[in-house]
Amino acid sequence: MVDPRTLEPSYPTHSQFYADWQERPKPAPAPEPDPDALADVIADEPIPIADSDIDLPTAGTEAARERLASFRDAGLRRYADTRDDLAAAVERPLEAVSRLSPYLAAGAIGIREVWETVTNVRDAVDGDERRNVDKYAFELTWRELYYHLLAHTPDLATANYKQFPDEIAWRTDDADFRAWKRGETGYPLVDAGMRQLERDGYIHNRPRQVVASFLTKHLLLDWRRGAAHFRERLVDHDPAVNPGNWQWVASTGTDSVDVRIFDPVAQAAKYDDTGAFVREYVPELADVPAEAIVEWPTLPADRQAELAPDYPAPIVDRTAAYERAQRVFERALGKRNDG
Ligand SMILES: Cc1cc2nc3c(=O)[nH]c(=O)nc-3n(C[C@H](O)[C@H](O)[C@H](O)COP(=O)(O)OP(=O)(O)OC[C@H]3O[C@@H](n4cnc5c(N)ncnc54)[C@H](O)[C@@H]3O)c2cc1C
User: Fold this and answer.
1) Distance 206 CA to ligand 1 centre (A)
2) Which of 119, 152, 185 is the last residue of a domain?
3) Nearest to 181 by CA among 190, 172, 171, 169
4) Cα 287 vs. chain centroid, distance in angstroms?
């Protein structure tokens, strides 16, 4: 039987980590320190104003606590039902998900405080509300996993977590990388996600997964390039959670199915079927009907030109890119040798 106080230094899957983690005691938030016991290092200068076009969240612990309390009251009990709803993310961005990540990443609020708030609600509700709150608590455990992995695997941001018998034959195409960064790939959900990053310094988790998959699979560009770009742009950049997630999406990290590929068309059909999220960030597609936005990469070129002449054509063929990723990963895994 696993000693409940023991966590392994490495975990191949989140579910194995989760099983051990559940057995661990969860400490309450540490008490506020006695101000007299602290060194007197308060500086007189004001907090510098960031030179950025991004509408940054209000900084500080007070703002973090307000964000947590507001989400606890307005969103937490419906979280599982709204977390992947991209229309809700546009219409009610501070209720559909918590937007706590910048505060957690910056240490403006501690995970123990968040955990205590969430579990207090969880213990007070049942039925459908309980299912929703449980999901939020579960998502926090992904963060715990990546912190745990980084503590034991300091090169999490620079080396594949999973061993491959052969090198992954990443492409090095700079033009494709630039198109991805600018949100000009011709894949509407990918472009909307990348433009959200540019405009807001944040990407909703669903398109975050889709843009990362598109880079590492459809474009076959090294996950480290994408992670480095996120590090520069994200207001919630986190040195454990960013590389952990990039590796998960790239199939080089935990929970590695051989080749994890998010199909950007199927993802749009499932999570943004009205096109609300795409229209919010991609003005070239503002007047295009929802079905055409969803199916965009598969529409004939003349139809695309007629509907949105200013929007870029897809930079890769959806099926050919999918099959190329399959081949390259299967070779790296030693499952085919036709290279
Ligand atoms: C490629 C990629 C890179 C990412 N990089 C970061 C990053 O640098 N910083 C960051 O905080 N999150 C990162 N995430 C995870 C996730 O996208 C964000 O935590 C989430 O979108 C933040 O919004 P929120 O606070 O409203 O999340 P909510 O849905 O409200 O979730 C609440 C909290 O749970 C935690 N959480 C949720 N999903 C994840 C996850 N997949 N992994 C780890 N923790 C999670 C976060 O602390 C989050 O703030 C990344 C995901 C991907 C796919």
Assistant:
1) 10
2) 152
3) 190
4) 28
Question: Which of the two residues, 1 and 314, has the higher pLDDT score?
Answer: 314
139 given a catalytic annotation: yes
Interval 254-274 mean pLDDT:
94
Annotation says 21 is catalytic: no
The domain boundary residue, chosen from 152, 187, 213:
152
- 223 a catalytic residue: yes
Give SS3 for 238: coil
- The amino acid that residue 330 corresponds to is E
Residues 276-297: tens digit of each pLDDT: 999 999 999 999 999 999 999 9
Q: Is the pLDDT of residue 315 over 70?
A: yes
Exactly one of 223, 242, 245, 296 is catalytic; name it.
Answer: 223
pLDDT at 2: 46
The CB of 246 under 6 Å from ligand 1? The reply is yes
pTM of the model: 0.96
Where does the pLDDT of residue 46 fall: very low under 50, low under 70, confident under 90, or very high at 90 and above?
confident
Minimum CA distance residue for ligand 1 atom 44: 143
* Among 188, 204, 206, 207, residue whose Cα is nearest residue 279: 188
Q: What is the CATH number of the domain that holds 59?
A: 1.25.40.80
